[in-house]
Design goal:
The protein is 34% helix and 28% strand. The chain has seven helices and ten strands. Bound molecules: adenosine-5'-triphosphate. The site of adenosine-5'-triphosphate has 10 residues, from helix 1.
Length: 218
């Protein structure tokens, strides 16, 4: 379960401090899939970065599956960050590594055994099995994002945070990638929290969390 209680995060705005996240409280149950929506500048990426342990709130509490991440020190946060899956709009694949190594790199760093059959099965599911020896520059955008999904899933996270993962894709490709991501998260009982500008994609989630000027509204 993910629980935020009165989370506040501010940034310097000239001389003053401006609240980017303004007393956000929300509970997300295990394996729930949530779309995080709101206008540009409403604080979606900031909220995702707080959940990812990349930013620390000024006040309030963020509890992810029993760990109060807002109280962790840098080393503990680094360990926490390795355990969650993060998927970006810009795929952030490592150009020097082939696709198989891109997918398995983080999981292996975490000490997970990734067998070849497991890798092939996941890549087949995502339609990229024929690309495992290729390099990122040889893949289309949609294929690269499927690699991003495989990389996140193979690490066996309890939570995947995705920031506009389909933002670079046309609507058909976006739909395919969303369906794959949702299906895999469902099968593996992973919480999926996905930022999207697209109402069309957001309504396909069991729940929408809406942000306006750093506050939640229904
Ligand atoms: N490093 C920073 N320094 C100062 N202000 C920042 C910084 N990063 C973000 N902001 C401000 O915080 C607010 C929220 O930004 P955030 O990126 O979380 O919004 P968003 O909802 O994800 O927007 P978008 O949909 O455009 O990506 C914006 O007003 C932005 O200008």
């Amino acid at each position: 379960m993910i629980q935020l209680k009165d989370v506040v995060f501010s940034r310097a705005d000239g001389e003053a401090q401006r609240r980017i996240i303004d007393k956000v409280s929300v509970t997300i149950h295990d394996a729930q899939q949530v779309a995080l929506v709101g206008d540009s500048g409403s604080g979606k990426t900031t909220l995702l970065n707080l959940l990812a342990g990349l930013l620390v709130p000024d006040s309030g509490e963020i509890n992810v599956n029993g760990t109060v991440i807002s109280e962790l020190d840098e080393n503990q946060l680094a360990r926490y960050r390795r355990q969650i899956g993060v998927i970006f709009q810009h795929y952030q694949l490592l150009e020097a590594l082939n696709i198989a190594d891109n997918i398995t790199f983080q999981a292996r760093l975490n000490g997970l055994q990734v067998t070849k059959p497991a890798l092939t099965a996941l890549a087949t599911r995502l339609g990229i099995a024929h690309k495992l020896s290729a390099f990122p520059s040889e893949l289309s955008g949609g294929e690269q994002q499927r690699v991003g999904i495989a990389r996140a899933i193979i690490n066996q996270p309890k939570v995947i945070l995705a920031d506009e993962p389909t933002g670079n894709l046309d609507s058909e490709r976006s739909q395919e990638v969303l369906e794959l991501l949702q299906a895999l998260c469902k099968e593996h009982e992973i919480n999926l929290i996905m930022v999207t500008h697209s109402e069309r994609l957001a309504v396909q989630f069991e729940r929408q969390i809406r942000l306006k000027s750093g506050q939640l509204y229904d």
